[in-house]
Amino acid sequence: MTTRCGYVALLGRPNAGKSTLLNQAIGAKVSIVTPKAQTTRFRISGIVMRGGDQIVLVDTPGIFAPKRRLDRAMVAAAWEGVAGADLACLIVDAAKADPDDLAEPIEALAATGRPRWLILNKIDLLPRDKLLPLAETLARQGGFAEVFMISALKRDGVDRLLDALAAAMPEGPHLYPEDELTDQTERMLAAELVREQIFLQLRDEVPYGASVETESFSERKDGSVRIDVTVYVARAGHKKIVLGEGGARIKSIGSRARRDLERQLERRVHLFLNVKERPGWDEEAARLRALGLDG
């Protein structure tokens, strides 16, 4: 039987819903999701089976105007994901879409020469009489081969999109085992789930000044796992905020991240968090490489 397999890059502005779509497509949480922009910092691949065909969805950092070295590395990672893909999908938040704001990434995407589709997300938040003209405007602006309208959060239209993506993949053997969900390691997952809780629980200025790294990941004889994670912050004041009064905040972050990890890993987790001040980490090439970014 002939099989199909290929890479699909998910590209878009921050908070367009790329990570939500990836998680829905896979049926598991492999990419963290928060209400804050710029949550995704590096490329994460999710493997989706549709019949005998395999789609490797690549969730990329949001496209925005970079200011720091970290920002530039994130945006570069997004475009590198497009360069290696068989198909690029521009994900647009339909409820907040501005054709003028999207002109630059649309033009840049067209310049890559990659086959490209437009996916209007969050369609449940926009009246139909506004949705159709928006779709026509953006489709004409970007010369997209296909246009899909979905609500990733509600899974509306997602299965139709996945069937179309599978049919569009080139013929070839599978790149991953059929039961594999992501290229993300357990060490990476641990760091990301801790970072997700930092985004969810702390004020706006702290998450963007924080970096999370899994220092050790060791199996125990009883089948459980011990994970040691370090949270690096850019300022002394941030360290106090992350720790909280009497260490209450870091305990809450660790407790919720541990529960998420146990659900994902399906075993008991002993999670230990440490917070260190590291000014200027977002401008350090070595630190960015440790995060999986080209510094």
Automatic annotation (TrEMBL):
HAMAP family according to UniProt: GTPase_Era
Function: An essential GTPase that binds both GDP and GTP, with rapid nucleotide exchange. Plays a role in 16S rRNA processing and 30S ribosomal subunit biogenesis and possibly also in cell cycle regulation and energy metabolism.
GO CC list: cytosol; plasma membrane
Gene3D superfamilies: 3.30.300.20, P-loop containing nucleotide triphosphate hydrolases
Gene: era
Region G3: start-end pairs: 59-62
Record-level Gene Ontology MF annotations: GTP binding; GTPase activity; ribosomal small subunit binding; small ribosomal subunit rRNA binding
Membrane topology: Peripheral membrane protein
Keywords for this protein: Cell inner membrane, Cell membrane, Cytoplasm, GTP-binding, Membrane, Nucleotide-binding, Ribosome biogenesis, RNA-binding, rRNA-binding
Domain (KH type-2) ranges: 202-279
Annotated stretches, region: G2: 38-42
Family note: Belongs to the TRAFAC class TrmE-Era-EngA-EngB-Septin-like GTPase superfamily. Era GTPase family.
Protein name: GTPase Era
Binding site for GTP: 12-19, 59-63, 121-124
